[in-house]
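Hi U.,

Before I forget, here's the chain from the pilot set. I'm dumping it here mostly so it's searchable later in email.
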Amino acid sequence: MHEMALMGDIIQLIQEDALKKGINMIERIELVVGEISNAMPDALRMAFFIIKEQRPSLFDDQAELVIVIEEAKAQCVFCEETYKPDRKIAICPKCNIPSGKIISGEAFQVLSYEGRSRK
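Structure:
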């Protein structure tokens, strides 16, 4: 499950940035995860829960992970049909050629995080 490693990296990056800003207690993390990004939202949630349990000094008791799903869209480079691909290389439903250019759905990024300074 590579989501555990992904979540570990995300939390490390957030922690480093938060410490620079005087934040040492994370309350909320918001991610954008594309439908064809190869990251599974449920596995990311489970990884967040595990890491949160392992590092209670870093997270507020009510800390949450919010995942915004980015819809997958592609456009055929030949007929210009816009469609929803089910994978990164998909066949255009109009001309039946695997020529789609991905427009969205591959994102995997931290949208925001919230936290506070522990007193």
